C-alpha cells in the first residue's frame, strides 16, 4: 500500500508539477517570462469580452433583444 501512495507522490511531484517548477526557476531570471501564461490568459479574456460586447451591440441594433421584464416565467 505504501508503494501505491509513493507512486501517486512521484506522479504529482516529479511529472505533473514539473512545468510549475520550471516557471518558479524562470521567475528568478525574468519576471515577464514567468508570467507569460498570465499574459496569454489576459489577452484571451480581453478578446472574449470585446467579442461579447460587439455581439450585444449587433443584437441591440437589430432590435431582436427581448428586454421585457416578464421574458422569463420566474420573473412574474
From TrEMBL:
Keywords: Glycosyltransferase, Membrane, Transferase, Transmembrane, Transmembrane helix. Pfam families: DUF6341 (PF19868). GO terms for molecular function: glycosyltransferase activity. InterPro entries: DUF6341. The chain crosses the membrane at residues 28-53. It comes from the Bacteria. This is Uracil phosphoribosyltransferase. It comes from Flavobacterium cupriresistens. The lineage of its organism: Bacteria, Pseudomonadati, Bacteroidota, Flavobacteriia, Flavobacteriales.
Amino acid at each position: 500500500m505504501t508503494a501505491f501512495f509513493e507512486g501517486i507522490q512521484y506522479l504529482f511531484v516529479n511529472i505533473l508539477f514539473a512545468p510549475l517548477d520550471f516557471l518558479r526557476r524562470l521567475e528568478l531570471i525574468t519576471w515577464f517570462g514567468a508570467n507569460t501564461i498570465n499574459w496569454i490568459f489576459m489577452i484571451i479574456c480581453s478578446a472574449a469580452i470585446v467579442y461579447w460586447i460587439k455581439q450585444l451591440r449587433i443584437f441591440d441594433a437589430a432590435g431582436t433583444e427581448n428586454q421585457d421584464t416578464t421574458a422569463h416565467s420566474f420573473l412574474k
